[in-house]
Amino acid sequence: MPETPVAEDRDAVLRAAGLPAVDLAALLAQQRDPLLFATVSGAHLYGFPSRDSDVDLRGVHLLPAADLVGLREPEETRTLMGDRDGVEMDLVTHDLRKFARLLLRPNGYVLEQLLSPLVVHTTPVHRELTALAPGLLTAHHAHHYRGFAGTQWRLFEKTGGLKPLLYTLRVLLTGIHLMAAGRLEPHLPTLAGGSDAPAYVPELIAAKEAAEHAPAGDVVPPDRLRADVAALHARLDEAQAATALPAVPAGRDALHDLVVRARLGGAAAGT
C-alpha cells in the first residue's frame, strides 16, 4: 500500500485540482461522530471546475454502536453545509456500515469518493477501505455508468448546458476505461487523452471553466453530440462484454471484518 501523503502534500494536490484557498476544517469539525475520511468529489475531482464551483466533500462517519442497536433511527447519512469566504461547501457522509453496503453494489459513485486523490481527511480505516477497493470492481459497474449517463443526457437535452453534457461524457468514458483497463479513472482531462474520447472534449472543459452554466451548442453541433454519445454507449457495451472484471465483488468478508473492528474500536478508528 502506498504511504499516506503528509498534510502539506495533500494541500498541494488540492491546490493543483483548482480547490479555492479556503479552510475546510471548520465544516469537518461540525461532524459530531468520528470522521473516517473526507475527500473532494464533484467537478474538482472530475477535472472541470468553474471559477464559481461549489466544493463537494464526501466521506464516512462512524456512529456509536448504541445508535444502531437502540430504538432510535440511526442517522446513517448526514449532510452539512457551509460557506467560507463566499465559497459554498457541503459535506455528505454515510455511516461506515451503510458505505460498505454501497461498496458491495455496482455503485461507481462511492468508489470514486473512496479512491479520490483529493484527500482532505484520512485515517487507518480509510486506508484499509482503499486497499480493498480493487476487489470490489465488477463488470456490473457498467450499469451504473450507463444509467448515470442516460440521466445526465436527458438533462442536457432539456437545458443544453455544458455541465450535464460533460457529466454524460465523463461517466461514459469512465465506464469504458473501467471495463477495458480494470481501473477507475474519473478525471475527464485524463480520459480525454484516450482513443475513445471525442476530440472536442478539451474545448468543452475550457468553456465550462469560464462559465458554469454556459450552453454547449456554441462548441459542438447537437447532431454530432448525439452521434458521439450513441457511439460511446455502444463502446461501453462492447467493453463490458469483453471485460476481465468479475461478475461479483471479492472481499466481502474482509469488508465485514473491517466494519466490525472499526465499530468495536469506536472513537479510536477516527484518529
Structural summary, described in words:
The structure is a single chain. With 271 residues, the protein is an alpha+beta fold. It has 2 domains: 7-137 and 249-270, Beta Polymerase, domain 2 (2-Layer Sandwich); 141-242, no CATH class. Helix content is 51%, strand content 13%. Strands 3-4-2-1-5 form a 5-stranded mixed β-sheet. β3 and β4 form a beta hairpin. α9 (162-181) packs parallel to α12 (222-242). The protein is globular, with a radius of gyration of 19 Å. The model has no long low-confidence stretch (mean pLDDT 91).
Keywords:
271 residues; alpha+beta; Beta Polymerase, domain 2; 2 domains; 51% helix; 13% strand
Q: What's the short version?
A:
Helices cover 51% and strands 13% of the residues. It has 13 helices and five strands.
